[in-house]
Amino acid sequence: MFASRHFRNYTYAKYGRVILEQPGRFAWQVFDQKVVKQLRDEYRIKQVTKVIGNTLEELVRKMDGVDAEGFLKEMAEYNAAIDQNVPFNSNVKDGRRTNGLAVDKTNWANTLDQGPFEAYQVTCGITFTFGGIRINPQAEVIDTDGEVIPGLYACGELVGGLFYFNYPGGSGLTNGSVFGRIAGKAAASR
């Protein structure tokens, strides 16, 4: 089944759950030749699940679990919605956007129209814990009895109690920086 346009409504923190709800617990990332050269090195290892097609029609026939008709309709609507008057620039927020979609893409909207096309099967991974180690405002770790563990500090994404089910992108880095500084100062003063 193709993950419909509603799939775009999620922040990346929610993608993992949505992917796990898909048949087979995977999704597909699709790229055309305009951006394939910009993919990270992990996309080039032998272990990736990748399919290639000279056309989108050929590509979707090779993508396990994808509704071909829904996929092709979605690609046509997406490509037609892109403002071609704004140049694409992957290095800055370029303002190249879609118009008229249920959830418009506001930067880096790029048509998928230059084959051969590549699709990579992906699943979710852990990038942020919503549970985790309990700390106090001084970044000291609290044990299961509610007592401070002397000399033990925590910060960053392993700290629990800050968010639940979703979080603003980059907030884990902010958490690490703020509580890291607090923990460092507290540890240095011991």
UniProtKB/TrEMBL annotation:
SUPFAM superfamilies, alphabetized: FAD/NAD(P)-binding domain, Succinate dehydrogenase/fumarate reductase flavoprotein, catalytic domain
GO function term, MF aspect, one: steroid dehydrogenase activity, acting on the CH-CH group of donors
Alphabetical UniProt keywords: FAD, Flavoprotein, Oxidoreductase
Cofactor(s) required for function per UniProt: FAD
Pfam annotation, one family: FAD_binding_2
Domain FAD-dependent oxidoreductase 2 FAD-binding: 28-171
Protein name in the entry: FAD-dependent oxidoreductase 2 FAD-binding domain-containing protein
Organism: Streptomyces brasiliensis
